[in-house]
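User: Could you check the structure of this?
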Amino acid sequence: MNSPCFKVAAFILVLLSGAFLPCRAQSTMDDSLQLKKIFNEILVHGNAYRNLDELSSQIGARLSGSPQAAKSVEWTAKKMKEAGADTVWLQEVMVPHWVRGEKEKGIIIRMDGKKQSIPTCALGMSVSTPSEGITAEVVEVHDFEELKKMGQEKIKGKIVFYNHPFDQRFVNTFDAYGEAGKYRYIGASEAARYGAVASIVRSLSSSDNDYPHTGSQRYLDSVPKIPCAAISTNGANLLGGILKSEPKTKFFLKQSCQLLDSVLSYNVVGEMRGSEYPREIVLAGGHLDSWDLAQGATDDGAGVVQCIEIVRALKALQIKPKRSVRIVAFMNEENGLAGGRKYAELAMKNKEQHIAAMESDAGATTPCGFGLNMSDDKKSKIRSWNNLFLPYNIWDWSWGEDGADISFLTDGQKVPGIGLQVDSQNYFELHHAATDTFEQVNKRELHLGAAAMASLVYLLATYGL
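Assistant: Sure, the predicted structure tokens are below.
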């Protein structure tokens, strides 16, 4: 567990007393008033919620290579211009084009022949089953060590079922996701090592529900590519229970997904040019693509509209940042990270000087802090602004994560990385599932996140790092 949004009252009192971190000389009363203006502007006049409604409800799911993804590029460029960016441009990037096809079928076949369908969805970039589907006995494993112990003798010709639930002891659910995620990401190839014909994985969700959660998986070139899918947590509980008394239970899986030729797409970039140090760039980004099961509202339409709101608020308040503020809507975070990779490649080629890169890709709930992936001296500089954020219940600077898209800039601390941290308790009920819709987003929480980002961007653009 790294950084839950709630701590004991005594810890808060220590922060409020000023004993935790000294205040920088630059953190003046003027800064406090400026942050208040930013929060007030966004909470009263913010457009992020309205923009998210358009992006999620009118355009909808935006899987890379899809017509909706192409439409979202045009929409985002238009919104950046309307927000007041001095310049807006598109960065070409080739992205994979994977399509799900017909609705998947997952059926438990009990030893007496009775059948029961359970909610099932193909994992991203999976191959299809044969047109008639695959029927085979199910072997349940809880981790890779158990899989290895069973070996080819017990696995060959069967469907491996990874039944690894979220560890509920983690208060920050991203820690539970990180611990369980490997069974989705490389589970198919690990099962294929021992001759499995397919794999199914318990959805990466923090609750018991009937919604399967998709997500990216990666095949290893050294083993056959086998079909892989996720089943809902309720479905996993049911199948796991049946297997205890009926070990010869079978499973039928049918899916028609396919990987088509790569497609030309774009990152969308907007910039407010710095008034004093224009070559120094403060970046804030989110990813424009989403999975195809829902609207991609929290993952990550929220991050995109929050970044657009940064520009709109600074422009509305007539704040002219000393350093250039750049916002980026990255393409293809979900199944390839091609957008983040291309952005970093071009930044290096153009010898651009990024002093910090921030990402919002943790949901749209109440902000409580920022993850800091940077050297200790730079962490100290940012944490010294703590007193400015306490009035807005933003106090946790302990998390060390930033974001996947900006990782190509920030890995190895080449560029200081920052990730917006929010209350994570319900995020993995929505993540990569059909439940990720606009109706799940609270306007005030979304705007608080945008205001927190805009405030930190303002300070970074004013004082550097």
